[in-house]
């Protein structure tokens, strides 16, 4: 660790990123590091050279695939090895399109005092996350022990995962489910065990229309609010005015509409609580994608 002690903060972030991807993805490309941090490929090459000087047994270069891979002797020196660390990287990449300002990759000292409300931390098992990512990357099946809301008991599931996503609360796996013979969403923290297998999927991920097709959601201030209040809500959600009034428009994968609507209380029609501040302009178009009683496991 002593070799990293005097490294500049920006480079330390990149080295941390490289090691975290090696640990969880099993491969690291120079281009991905360059795009994530907005630095030249030449700088990234120097980062890899420095890292391999400090940790000569950790990474090896595959000339055919043009990627770095962890060796059998790989031992993280910067990464914590916690699934939350990797998942935080994914969130930053999804929402910010960059990870160069991600706090978890290092600490800035002397910042303003701050605080936040506690949030439930559903623990994701490290061994489960590795197997899920392996199955996605290798396009293979997954034998899992999973707790569903249907029984609240551990049950065996045969799945073929092809994506993971964050719902604003928890991480989910999008997978074809042998039990229900359809693509469904599985909470990542509810997997007790998971092991990738070589069983080919009975349904290609390309056929998951809920994932590949998108629909526009048009969110507006609740009509029960005064004009001044609606303008304030529009400011809160960075809405823009169109011919029909204030609107926040976003493109969503169809399978994510239910999560979005539930998160913002947009799926409540009757007896809407007074604290509800938002409505859906195109509700009738989106209702088919709202959660049904067995929509998720």
UniProtKB/TrEMBL annotation:
Start and end residues of each DNA-binding transcriptional repressor CapW winged helix-turn-helix domain: 11-91
Residue ranges annotated for the WYL domain, each copy included: 128-195
Signal peptide annotation: none
The organism's place on the tree of life at top rank: Bacteria
One Pfam short name: BrxR_CTD
DNA-binding transcriptional repressor CapW C-terminal dimerisation domain span: 215-286
InterPro entries: CapW-like, CapW_CTD, CBASS_pafABC_assoc_protein, WHD_CapW, WYL_dom
Name under which the protein is recorded: Uncharacterized protein
Organism this protein belongs to: Roseateles aquatilis
